Amino acid sequence: MSFANLGLSEAIVRAVSERGYTEPTPIQAQAIPVVLQGGDLLGGAQTGTGKTAGFTLPILQRLSATPAKAGTGRAPIRALILTPTRELAAQVEESVREYGKYLPLKSMMMFGGVNINPQIKQLHGRVDILVATPGRLLDHLQQKTVDLSHVEILVLDEADRMLDMGFIRDIKRVLAVLPKQRQNLLFSATFSDEIKLLADGLLNNPALIEVARRNQAHELIEQRVYPVDRERKRELLTHLIKEYNWFQVLVFTRTKHGANRLAEQLDKDGIPAMAIHGNKSQAARTRALAEFKSGTLQVLVATDIAARGIDISELPHVVNYELPNVPEDYVHRIGRTGRAGSEGEASSLVCIDEKKLLNDIERLIKRDIPVVNVPGFDVDPRIKAEPILNGQNRGQGGGQRRPQGNAPRTGGGQPGRSGPKPAAAPARGGNAATHRSGGRGR
User: Fold this and answer.
1) How far is CA 109 from the centre of its chain?
2) Which of 12, 67, 283, 371 would staple 425 via disulfide (CB 3.0–4.6 Å)?
3) Using 50, 70 and 90 to split pLDDT, how confident is the model at 420?
């Protein structure tokens, strides 16, 4: 099947072809006809499935094929796409511009962390499609610098993440100013009870599309667990990166402070690394992403929220320096690799404090993750599990206080991409405390 067979215009198909795409992905093949027909849609899709084009292409088709309804003066905003993060907003708006390059439509992205005045100026001109984060959009609504009274199509992208970030009230305030008659498209990687509740109140007899089994980890991703004492995580990560020459490594921490500290430690170990999280300026985030995508930055350390919108077609390595408190976030994290048919590796450095979190993840993905024991990093059986407070393990990753009795670090280790595949170790044992407390980095 080609994109032309889906009912897209020659101008759109030409722009898609110039980006190197010839056949639609499964979610595109299913979503595009539904959106073109004007119906509401509930889409379940993991990152890397092509869902952005699944809604941007038919929106461009619909808006270019029909004139705007009579308004008051200048051309109205006809489509609103809400995203949870600045990075994702930038990525989506870029797709709108690229796919609509041969159409007489104008798009704009709007997010916080930057001066609002250039955005106000841009809103004085023509904007057909607005891509925005909820907080900055509310700023404009309060200042009466944006008019959403003619919106025909609303998209909530990565709705599960927006709920996780506490945007539900902001979303409801935006919905209150939109026209009652409109098309609604909601996309989510997971279908929690909260997502179902939001969908029930927002969508009118929606088509349901799921392109992967719910909460299924990508089959092309090779997943591994590296047992390690909490004090030696950074030491093990440095060893793995250097021993197997890993490049373009996306490393996840639970907290912003933890991301900063780990990036600094890796730099001291001779591994170029930068942290990206909500406290970083937009300029710093953009620079870190650009260097990471180009390959000049070896390691990018990120919190869950900041990593949304990182779109690298062949990202080889994702490392869970700390397991997430919520098992679904594991699926989101490792979904950054293994995209568009490429293979990827997802490595998790797991200390005794995180055994319960690991069990929850394996229960969610319905499989045991193979265990790799690295020589020289044997786990000290005398160390007891401790609660994870404020999103952190006690003394995590510093490598400053090695418990007595640990074997000294030696060479060896288990292979990265360049070596043979590691064998799974025997099943894990031991009890673990429940670790549900603590915040998640933003």
Assistant:
1) 18
2) 371
3) very low
Please state the domain extents for the chain: 4-210, 217-442
d(CA 312, CA 87): 12
CB-based burial label for 382 (10 Å; 0-12, 13-18, 19+) = exposed
How many helices (H) and strands (E) the chain has is answered by 15, 13
Nearest to 329 by CA among 318, 340, 339: 318
Q: Which structure tokens are listed for 346?
A: 């997802």
On the CB side of 35, CA atoms within 13 Å amount to: 34
Helix (H, G, I), strand (E, B) or coil at 208: strand
For 221-233, how does the pLDDT look when each residue is reduced to its tens digit (9 = 90+)? 899 999 999 999 9
**What is the identity of the amino acid at 172?**
K
**What is the C-alpha separation between 342 and 344, in angstroms, rounded?**
7
Domains 4-210 and 217-442 share a fold: yes
Top-level class of domain 4-210: alpha beta
pLDDT score recorded for residue 429: 36
The pLDDT tens digits for 196-217 are: 888 999 999 999 988 754 445 5
Looking at the predicted structure, is the pLDDT value of residue 125 above 90? Answer: yes
Q: Is the pLDDT of residue 81 over 50?
A: yes
Q: Can you read off the two tokens belonging to residue 139?
A: 């700023």
